[in-house]
């Protein structure tokens, strides 16, 4: 594995009231690596992303970043379970929200980048539309564009396709693969879907039930670039069976 861009060094997170969300979580993530994290609800997957973003304080351990990554002005970008778009803003304005918060001058500087992202995600014709005029998949594309606006080194994604229908989910998965192939950002992707994790990832981290720990790490060596055709291969099936076995042994139920 290449030099880690981010390392979890025995990270723990305890909440008031005695809930232990994450305990002794240890993992190195390489620069440009696509890592998916799967596990049961309540095992601390989303908590890990909050710890990376600094939205929650650590109880124990530490999260370390490569020095170069720490110096970047936009080290992380976040794509949420729901796109969280402002209904009164146009699509373009929603993408530019991070820049608008920094002032008019920054917004003007970033508008070209925002339009490039909309074009890349097939949303050029909808730049002046409002969220209620878009499908769920299109709204999530706007959320992805917003997260990519400042070209973050690390992209965090918290079950971004979980609320979408199967066909839309497949298309956005392919879109994400294309974006990753082009830019090779470091991606930490939270999902309940084993097949989605295998299709996207270099490695799949399987978490134990709460308190969340690393139960297994599965290296995915399927050739890239990948398409949906790989889902029908024997190798793909073997990866999904292995991950399912780890989860079943922990008495976990997840999506197929």
What does this protein structure show overall?
This protein is of the alpha/beta class and 256 residues long. The protein folds into 2 domains: 4-75 and 152-249, P-loop containing nucleotide triphosphate hydrolases (Rossmann fold); 85-151, no CATH class. It has helices spanning 45-53, 67-71, 91-95, 97-100, 104-120, 136-148, 166-183, 194-200, 234-249, and strands spanning 4-14, 20-30, 34-38, 60-65, 76-79, 154-158, 186-190, 203-207, 214-219. A 6-stranded mixed sheet has the order 5-6-7-3-8-9, with helices on both faces. Strand 1 (4-14) and strand 2 (20-30) form a beta hairpin. Helix 8 crosses helix 9 (234-249). The protein starts with a strand and ends in a 7-residue tail after the last helix.
List strands and helices in order, with pairings:
Elements: E1 4-14, E2 20-30, E3 34-38, H1 45-53, E4 60-65, H2 67-71, E5 76-79, H3 91-95, H4 97-100, H5 104-120, H6 136-148, E6 154-158, H7 166-183, E7 186-190, H8 194-200, E8 203-207, E9 214-219, H9 234-249
Parallel strand pairs: 3-7, 3-8, 5-6, 6-7
Antiparallel strand pairs: 1-2, 1-4, 8-9
Helix pairs in contact: 8-9
């Amino acid at each position: 594995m290449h030099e880690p861009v981010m390392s979890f060094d025995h990270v723990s997170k305890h909440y008031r009231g005695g809930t232990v969300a994450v305990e002794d979580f240890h993992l190195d993530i390489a620069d440009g690596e696509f890592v998916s994290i799967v596990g049961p609800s309540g095992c601390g997957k989303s908590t890990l992303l909050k710890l990376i973003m600094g939205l929650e304080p650590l109880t124990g351990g530490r999260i370390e970043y490569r020095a170069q990554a720490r110096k970047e002005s936009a080290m992380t970008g976040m794509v949420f379970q729901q796109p969280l778009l402002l209904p009164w803003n146009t699509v373009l304005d929603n993408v530019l929200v991070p820049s608008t918060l920094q002032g008019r001058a920054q917004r003007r500087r970033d508008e070209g980048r925002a339009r490039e992202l909309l074009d890349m995600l097939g949303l050029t014709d909808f730049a002046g539309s409002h969220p209620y005029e878009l499908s769920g998949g299109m709204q999530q594309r706007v959320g992805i564009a917003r997260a990519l606006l400042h070209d973050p080194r690390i992209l965090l994604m918290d079950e971004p396709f979980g609320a979408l229908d199967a066909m839309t989910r497949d298309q956005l998965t392919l879109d994400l693969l294309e974006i990753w192939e082009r830019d090779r950002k470091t991606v930490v992707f939270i999902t309940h879907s084993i097949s989605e994790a295998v299709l996207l990832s270099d490695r799949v981290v399987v978490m134990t039930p709460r308190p969340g720990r690393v139960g297994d790490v599965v290296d995915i060596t399927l050739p890239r670039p990948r398409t949906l055709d790989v889902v029908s291969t024997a190798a793909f099936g073997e990866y999904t069976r292995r991950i399912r076995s780890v989860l079943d042994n922990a008495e976990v139920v997840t999506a197929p």
